[in-house]
Predict the structure.
Amino acid sequence: MHAQGIEGVVPILMYHSISQEATSAYKPFAVSPGLFIEHIEYLRRHNYTPMTVTQLAQARSQESGSLPERPIVLTFDDGLADFYHSALPVLKQYDFRATLYVVTAYVNGTSQWLRNKGEEMRPMLSWEQIQEISEQGIECGGHSHTHRQLDILPAASARDEIVRSKEELERHLQRDILTFSYPYGYYTAGIQRMVHDAGYTSACTVQYTASSPHDNPFALTRLNIDSSIDTTALEALLKRKETRSPKPRLKRTLAYAWRLKRYLSALVDAKSKNSEVTTKVGRPQGSPLQ
């Protein structure tokens, strides 16, 4: 075991759908099965060693900080049925581990939160499929219960989204669920504490950078893999040496402005429905992804 490349930086790749079919609004999130195979073949050919999110978090928590020579983490958000049909067979063929984050309310149903992209009928995994996936060595993690924007929810609602996702997965899989992925990548320090207190040991966000060994384990950064990334683009992404934004203050300001806009929109919607949004606007993080 040796420390990886650039000061222990590890690429955590974020996929959503592995599918040929998608609406124009959702197309960036749907990587074709053929392209996905090319990605995995590239990673195997260049001797990347796959890890789960929990394996990475545990390795970093140890004093030795030991990692494989070329570690990489593959994550899949949402729990869409195409993971079972189009991703799992490829991962098994190449003996690749991965972490699958599941939106638990829609298991056995469809992706209702994607209505604004015309994808509310995209099939989700069944509990039977998730059990099989877990038994095949794929790590399963929580991705909230209904895929809501946790950072603008009342605290009690946000906590329920986080805890219920874990409880549902543990009840069906009969194993500890240790990792979480923030819906849309949005979180605050308060949301991080809720995830920690729920019993998770790590959480993933977005941030468009490889994961630094200095990352908070409850804010692991990921690289978004969309349908435009061929193997040439993937190679450039993996070899990029600048892993941190050169203008973090500007990014934080933009993130705060974006969160404030979402908060005000939610407030207007809540008032129109005779309800109330009570969460205070705090320091935001994250990026607007699915």
